Amino acid sequence: MNELERKDPDQLLDELSRREASLKRGRLKIFFGASAGVGKTYAMLESARAARAAGVDLVVGYVEPHGRAETERLLFGLEQLPFLEVTYRGGLQRREFDLDAGLARHPSVLVVDELAHTNLEGEPKPRHAKRWQDIDELLAAGICVWTTLNVQHLESLNDVIAGITGIRQQETIPDRIFDQADEVELIDLSPSDLLARLKAGKVYAAPQAEAALERFFREPNLLALRELALRRTADRVDAAAREFAAERRSKPWLARDRFLVAVDLDDQAEQLVRVGKRFADALDAEWLVVTVETPRMLKLGEKARNRRIDILRFAESLGARTVTLSGPSASTALSEYAKVRNITRVVVGEPRRFGSRSWFRPSTAAKLVTANGGFDVSMIARRGAATTEDKRQKDLIRRNIDWRPYWLGLFITVLATLISSVMYPYFASPNIVMLYLLGTTVAALRLGRGAATVTAVANILAFDYFYVPPRYSFAVADLQYVVTFGVMLVVALTIANLAASVRAQTRVAGARERRTALLYLMTRELAATQDLEDLARVAVKHVAETFASRAVVLVPDSNGRLRYPTSVAVAVSLRGADLSIAQWAFDHATPAGLGTDTLLGANAQYLPLKAARGTLGVLAVEPLQKRRLLLPEQRHLIETFAGQIALAMERAELTEEAQSARITAQTESLRNTLLASISHDLRTPLAVIAGAASALNDPNMTFDAVSHRVLTESIDAKAREMSEVISNVLELMRLESGQITLKRDWQALEDLVSAALSRANERLAKHSVENDLPAALPPVLVDGPLIVQVFLNLLENAAKHTPAGTTVKISASTQSGWVHVVVDDNGPGFPQGDPELLFAKFHRGRDEGNTGGAGLGLTICRAIVNAHGGSIHAEERAGGGARIRFSLPLS
Question: What CA dihedral angle connects 376, 381, 386 and 389, to 10 degrees?
C-alpha cells in the first residue's frame, strides 16, 4: 500500500488539490499608472481588502507606503509577511521583500509593490537582481501576485521617456513581463489633479516635492506619460481583441511580418533595439537583432566585444532573437541573410558618413537600398547630438596598435630590395616589380591589411629609389613609371584587402566548424556510452574543450539532492560548484548563475538537464573568460550541449531500466520454470515419504520385518532423491554466479573416473560399464571433485535414460595439448531435435514419465567444463545410441 492509499479521502483530496495548485502557474495582476502618485498602491490595497473580506487567502508581501497615512491605514487588518532586513554599504540596513517567506506561506494572492524595483546587493545576498524575477518565481510556484508599475519603467520606452523628461530611468522591466500579465488595471489621474496632490504633500515630502515639480512633474511631461500609459493599455486591449477574433476566425489575417534590426557598436545601438521592440508590438511581427562580424570587428578590443554582448543580451531581454553573422561587409551579409529568412523590413541606424566620404564608401543603409533584396529599409535618425557618453562609446572600438606586423612588413621590403639588387643586372624591371608584388602578397597573407598596405607603399618607394632612373632619388625620368607605380599600388591594395578578408572569414569559419565538429563528436561519444558516470565524464571533457572552461555534471541522489559524481574526476572537472545554486536550478528547471537573470554574480553557469521525463541533473560550467558564455550564440550553443547531454542521460536511464526489467522478467521466468520443473520431482518423493511415514506411525497397522524395511528404505531413497534435486539447483546457482573458485591440482583421469563409478555403483547396477581409458594417459590440471561431478552426472544420466542391460563406455585420447573424453551408450539415443538443447536449464531429453530429475545434470556439466576452459557437446553415436564428448586442456 503506497502513501496515498494510507490517507483518508479528505486528506487525499487536500493533497491532490495542493499538488494541482503547485503545478498551475499563478496569475499576475498589474496596477498600471503614468507616474508615481496616481494612486496605484492605494487602489491595489483597496482591492486587497475587498478580496480579503470575500474570503480570499490574501497576504501582503511588501508595500512601500512612502509615509502616506491613507496607504498605511489600508494595511491595517491585512496579514503581512515579515520584512527581510538587508545590511549594505558598511552597516546600513533596509527592508526588502522576503521571497522565501512568500514561498513558504504560499497564499492564494500575494501583494508585492513596485514591480521594477532593484534588489539591494547586501547580506543576505538576493537570489535575483530584480523584483520582477522574484515575482516570476512566485508565479511559477502557483501563487497569484498583485503589483504596481509606472509606464516609464517599461524597457522599450526608456529612450522615449528620457527624451520627454530628460531623465533616464535606471529601473526597468522587460516588456514581456507586462505583455504576459493576466490582468492590467489602469489607474488614471489627470495631470492637474496629480500636481495638486504633489503640492499638498500627498506624494512626496515638501523638499522632495519641490525638486520633483522643477524636474519630472511638469505638466507637459505628465501629459506625455499619461498618453503613453493609455496607449500601452489600449494596445493590450487591441491585442486581446485580435486574439479573440483569430480564435473565432471572424476575419482573415495576413501573414506576419518579419523584420531585422541591424546594430553596430555605436551609441545608437540601444535606440535601434528599442525602436525594433516598438515596431514589433505595433506590427505584431517577428523581429531579429543582428550584428555582423566584419574584418574590422574581428580586430576590436575586449571592451568593444563586451559591449556587443551587452547589446545582444539587451535585445533578448526585450524578446528579440539575436543572430551574429560574418562577412566581408555588413551590407552583403545582411542582404543575403534577409533573403534567406524572408525578411520584409530592415531597420538600420543613421549613416555616419556624409558628403565626399559617402562617395567612396557608401553607408550600409545606402547599400541595402540599392541591393534590391525584396525588403524595405527603415533608417532611424539618431536622437540628439553626440555627447560625452557617445564619445566614450566610440572609444570602446579603439584598440592599442600592435606595431610588430608593420615592422615585419618593412623587413619584407628590405628583403625584397636585397634580392632585387642581385637580380637587377640580369633581369628587366617588370621582373623586379613582380618580386615586390610577391612581398606584398606575403604580407597580406601573414600580417593583415594594415601591414600589407604599409608594405605596398614601402615597396613602391623602394622600387622608385633604387631601380627607377635616375637611381637613388625619388625623381622619375620616364612618366610611364608613374603608371607602373599606380598599378602596383592598386594591385597590392586589392591583394591585401582580399587576403585579409579571406583570413578573417577563414578564422571565423574555422571556429564555427570546430564548434560544430565538437558537438558532433560529443553526440557520437554519448551515443556509444551507456554508463551514467561515463556519460558525465564524456560531457565534461567536451564542454570544457569547447568553451575553454571547467565543468561538472551534478546528478541527484535518492532524496533529490544534487551531488558530485563518484567517479574519478578528469583534469577539467569543476570541483568548486555552488551546490545551492545548482539545486535551485534543478528544482525550478531554470538556468541560474553567470549570464542569467538569477544569481548572476556567480562565477559559473548552472544549466538544468531537461528531458521528456523531467530534469535529470545540472550542468555547471565555469569559463576561463566570461565572454565564452555571455555571447548569445555561445549561450545557445551550450544550451544545445546541455540538451544533448540530457537526451543521452535519459537514454542511459531508459536502457538501465529496460535491462533491469529484462533481468526481472528472466528471473521470474527462471523461477516459474524451476517451480514447474521440480514440482513433480519434489511432489512425488514427498508423497511417498508422507505415505510411508503415515503407515509406520499408524497404531492400527502392524508390519513384519520385511515390510518395515521396505517402507524405511523407500523413505530413505526418496529423501536422497529430493536432496539431489535441491543440490543440483544450488550447485548450478553457485557455478553461474561465480561463487566457486577452482582448486586445480594434477589429477590422473583414471582416479577421477574410478571415484565417479564408485559413487554411481548403485545407479549402474543394471548396466554394464566399460572403462577404456589408455594406460599412458597424462595427468590433467583440474579441480578433482568438480570433474568427478561431471563423470557422475554423465553416468547417472545414461543410467536414467537407457533401459536395463545397456552398456556405458568411457574412453579418452589426447591431441594437441587437449584430452578428449567420450561417454557412449548403446541405448535409444537422443530424442529428435538439436542435441545441444540438452544442456539448457530444466530441459529433459524425454517426457517425464517415471524419470525423475530437474533437467540440470548436463547444464552443471557444461558449467564445470567451461570453467576449466574446455567444451562439451552431445551427438548421435554412429552405431546407435548417445554420445557425450568433453575436452579439457592438459595445462
Answer: -70
For 663-702, give one letter per residue: b (16+ CB within 10 A) or e: eeeeeeeeeeebeebbeebbebbeebbeebeeeeeeeeee
Q: What is the DSSP letter of 382?
A: P
CA distances from 152 to 214, 273, 824 (A): 18, 17, 101
Question: Residue 591: phi, psi to the nearest 5?
Answer: -60, 145
Q: What span, in angstroms and rounded, lies between the C-alpha atoms of 733 and 596?
A: 56
The cell numbers describing 241, all together, are 481583441
Structural contact between residues 428 and 480, judged by C-beta atoms closer than 8 angstroms = no
C-alpha cell of residue 368: 541595402
pLDDT tens sequence across 836-872: 667 665 555 554 444 445 556 777 788 888 888 888 8
Q: Is the dihedral of CA 633, 634, 639, 640 positive or negative?
A: positive
Alpha carbons 423 and 433: distance in angstroms, whole number: 11
Kindly report, residue by residue over 425-435, the tens digit of the pLDDT: 888 777 888 88
Asked whether 365 and 348 are in contact (CB, 8 A), the reply is yes
Residue 46's SS3 state is helix
| 3-state SS, residue 571 | coil
User: What is the grid cell recorded at 453?
Assistant: 598596405
How far is residue 313's CA from residue 334's CA, in Å, rounded to a whole number? 20
Provide, rounded to the nearest whole percent, the portion of the chain with pLDDT above 90. 11
For residue 883, what is the enclosing H or E element? strand 882-889
Please check the confidence at residue 364 and state whether its pLDDT lies above 60: yes
What is the pLDDT, as a whole number, of residue 701? 78
Give 200's contacts (C-beta < 8 A, 6+ positions apart): none
Question: 3-state class of 887 per DSSP?
Answer: strand
Inter-residue contact 32 to 154 (CB < 8 Å): no
Closest CA to 718 of 681, 755, 751, 773: 681
SS3 for 470? coil
Contacts of 681 (CB under 8 A, 6+ apart): 721, 722, 725, 852, 853, 854
User: How far apart are alpha carbons 509 and 327 in whole angstroms?
Assistant: 10
Distances from the Cα of 270 to the Cα of 292, 343, 349, 351, 596, angstroms: 16, 21, 11, 16, 20
**pLDDT above 70 coverage of the chain, percent:** 82
pTM equals 0.58
| CA distance linking residue 397 with residue 303, whole number of Å | 7
The DSSP-derived string for 778-818 is PPEEE-HHHHHHHHHHHHHHHHHHS-TT-EEEEEEEEETTE
**Beta-ladder partners of 819:** 814, 888
Q: What is the C-alpha separation between 392 and 409, in angstroms, rounded?
A: 32
- Positive or negative torsion for Cα 491, 496, 497, 503: positive
